[in-house]
Amino acid sequence: MYVILVYDVGEKRVGKMLRLCRRYLHWIQNSVFEGEITELKLRELVHKAREQMVLQEDSLIIFRSREERWLEKDIIGKEKNKLDTFL
After folding, report:
1. Less crowded by CB within 10 Å, the N or C end of the chain?
2. Are 38 and 86 in contact (CB under 8 A)?
3. CATH of 2-68, one of 3.40.50.300, 3.30.70.240, 3.30.70.270, 3.90.1150.10
4. For 6-23, what is the mean pLDDT?
5. pTM of the predicted model as reported, rounded to 2 decimal places
6. What is the mean pLDDT of residues 72-79?
7. Which helix (H) or strand (E) covers residue 55, if one does?
């Protein structure tokens, strides 16, 4: 499946959440990640994220799609972190 993940966490937890998400997805902008991921890996990521979060203060939002091709993405301005695919 293809996901877009967005988080908003307290300042003290931002670094840990960034490192965690980068292990599973591609960082595209501040607190925004995207990429292909299996259901099992996504559950693992969510479990580890919940351990770092203060649920009364922080949030994690995940948009899911079966495949990237079902999403349209328009970038206006500078793309912060290009996703290059090497064949």
Report:
1. C
2. no
3. 3.30.70.240
4. 95
5. 0.81
6. 67
7. none
